[in-house]
Sequence to fold (579 residues):
Amino acid sequence: MSISNETVEKIASLSKLKIDEGKLDETRNEFNKILDWMAQLDEVDTDGVEPLVSVNAQNLVCREDVVTDGNKKAEILANAPASEFGYFSVPKVVE
Amino acid sequence: MSELTKLTIAEALNGLKEKKFSAKELTEAYVHKMDENRRFNAYVSETPEIALKAAEIADKNYAAGTPRALEGIPLGIKDLFCTKGVRTTACSHIIDNFVPPYESTVTGHLFNAGAVCLGKLSMDEFAMGGSNENSCFGPVINPWSKDVPLVPGGSSGGSAAAVCAEMCAAATGTDTGGSIRQPAAFCGIVGVKPTYGRCSRYGIMAFASSLDQAGPMGKDVRDCAILLKIMAGYDEKDSTSARKEVPDFEKVLGQDIKGLKIGIPAEYRPEGLNKEIADAWDKATAILKARGAEIVDISLPHTKYALPVYYIIAPAEASSNLARYDGIRYGNRVDGAHVDDVYVNTRTQGFGKEVKRRIMIGTYVLSAGYYDAYYVKAQKVRRLIQNDFNEAFKRCDVILTPTSPTTAFPIGDKAMMENPLNMYLNDVFTVSVNLAGLPAMSLPIGLASNGLPLGMQLISRAFDEETMFKAAYALEQDAGFKRK
Fold:
């Protein structure tokens, strides 16, 4: 299965990335090479095999629903590229 | 003074207890080495002031007769671990100004035990790579290099190089597909990837959450055993950390390995395997056999599928984990007219080439229409790979393989640069272990004819690091490898 330039652009857009100018064909070829290589999994019979999501899923337990942390506005905002009035600030979202 | 940096952690702790030297002298010796070896580019942030302050406290504790387990031992920390108040970048431009307001659980354990922080170590950006060439701070040079600068391996390349060049007593690493073991092999040191869940992932910037594990990288097997005991343990801040008692790994070192069953997997000797690697493997097998271990031929039939499975699952998880880097809450922001432009501009300029490649591959295999064909398929084969190990461990106690199919290669190697698949193939012997969640370690066995170290990998059952350590110690004793 090989993918088109259009698909590569769609994937980039979903990833919130831009393909470098003039690099679309190169990126597509690289992707196709990697996807071809991944296709070798098709030869493995996986009928009836349960997908392995986590090696220690049995570890997951619910904790008590209580507040354990908080009141750290200054620390949370300390690394913000831009903040105003105690909030993260961003360019206008709604016209 | 310079001799102090040659000491292992075990030796240094003895020396400190016996007051042969002070923690301040030990730290100063390492700071001096960091200066002397700056050409290797192993550190991306140095914190000598923090280190010396911690060393002073250590000396007070020794004077008071109340030293903690790692009192005064100077460590380097991979720049993926958040360190409170010390810049942490994952070696990515997108967050190269990030100063964490909190401490990762693993580094917290180390520092609470009295360890001294010398600084942060280089790595492949977000731990994606096998050569440390993907660091935004430039490549790290393997201290074993002669005429041509060689890679230290990756992604924990700065950690491996720093331990090798005595720029720290030991270092932390993380291993998602071989990122502790392969650089340990390339630099002739010992590196341990514990069972998934053994060490908390809290405060370690996430790459592939179902595979990532932290572990120690040290001068010898004993040092790694000492460190792992302190790094490990259940943490309520990481829901995947295991509620298991942490054993005293050091206790098993030196125990008899007579009758221990060592599995040798046929699939790890593919046609065309480098002869010197194969010979080193035979040598290691012979050493264990001479110690009375029983050698058992085993099969891990789905081995050849581990790489494609890994390169679907790891990028899929990465594409999700790295969605948080959008220029809004932390890191660098590249402005745009609309908030969506901010995301795209920030990420396009902030991430390096390999990271972008993996985010896009991951996005593709998770996207509507391809999810079952790639992602779910890979998870199913992942189950078969785990089943292979379960079967194998019915017949043996520990598995012995080479760590890497090659020794360290030159920086800027053409074949690796031109085709990312060539770089991915370096992980052929290491990724299966992460997929199955098992513990594994690499230790040096000898030198190849090119003068570079060769690493052997030992794999044991989940939460049975003790057997692995026991076998590794025996192998280390008889291999007689001389540290650089």
